[in-house]
Design a protein that fits this description.
Length: about 290
């Protein structure tokens, strides 16, 4: 088995080369993306030469950890692209977490994105109350570990200062990189970056960008994540309210414009939430290459 690069390795090399890492995210829909379907999708993504591909659970946070580990391993073994496996800890025992970590290590997955995950109804307190608790556990196991960052704050945290303190706490616990929650206003990220740097957060922060494809989708994302909608998006929603295909194209174009602007502002990395659609990944990479950002 070839020893795959970790995300820390990728960012270390990027500091020398000056190229900003670009990564994609996929998820097992409904918790059960077959390996064959995942392989077909991964083949298309790998052709675009991303620096890594992250594999989350199914939409809404359900799904099975084994599928995540199997798909991450397949991406590495079949396409020679480093993979990042998401791991959540809400409601989990230490034994379950250690078993998941051992499974990932056994499959050659060397990088984990450690997340708290959605609270489990009826589940009492466990040793993993916050993502930083999981970060520490994964780091102690010898894996490269990243964590989530929230440019506009977590939906359950209204205190901007506490948001930065939580970020710093995850770094102190062992997080060597961050991936942001989606956002639609780049100025929110630039302000967040300044605050993070002032607080001593030096780990690279990749900007997570998701194109909006429909009015229902963007309403769901705003409700789930608390992301704000800038006026250009509101105008696009009004303009193409009765033209879903045009709205979808406008959403992808808006995301590509976000990516190129972020690259021009020297962000550490770019992470595209592909929603399992290779055409979104292709459009994103084409936009970055057209501006010389990739």
């Amino acid at each position: 088995m070839v020893r795959m690069k970790t995300v820390s390795d990728i960012y270390r090399e990027a500091r020398v080369s000056g190229l900003k890492p670009v990564s994609f995210e996929v998820f097992p829909p409904k918790g059960d993306l077959s390996l064959e379907a995942a392989r077909e999708m991964a083949a298309q993504l790998a052709q675009l030469a991303p620096d890594f591909i992250s594999v989350t659970y199914s939409a809404g946070g359900s799904g099975n950890k084994r599928a995540t580990a199997d798909i991450a391993s397949m991406i590495q073994d079949d396409f020679d692209v480093p993979a990042v496996a998401h791991l959540t800890c809400a409601g989990a025992t230490g034994e379950l977490v250690d078993r998941a970590i051992a499974d990932l290590k056994g499959k050659g997955v060397r990088t984990v994105l450690a997340l708290r995950g959605d609270p489990v109804p009826g589940c009492g307190p466990t040793e993993f109350s916050y993502a930083r608790d999981l970060v520490a556990r994964v780091a102690a196991a010898g894996l490269c570990v990243g964590a989530a960052a929230y440019p506009e704050g977590h939906i359950s945290c209204d205190d901007a200062r506490a948001n930065i303190e939580h970020l710093k706490g995850k770094q102190d616990a062992g997080a060597s990189f961050f991936v942001t929650q989606l956002f639609f206003d780049n100025e929110c990220f630039y302000r967040f970056r300044e605050q993070a740097e002032a607080a001593g957060v030096f780990a690279p922060i990749a900007c997570g960008i998701m194109p909006f494809l429909s009015k229902a989708q963007i309403q769901r994302m705003v409700f789930m994540c608390g992301a704000s909608l800038p006026s250009p998006i509101i105008k696009l929603l009004a303009r193409y309210e009765d033209a879903p295909d045009d709205l979808r194209r406008a959403g992808i174009e808006y995301a590509c414009a976000q990516l190129t602007d972020l690259a021009a502002h020297g962000v550490d990395g770019l992470h595209v939430y592909t929603m399992n659609r290779p055409d979104i990944a292709r459009a994103s990479m084409a936009a970055l290459r057209a501006t010389g950002s990739r």
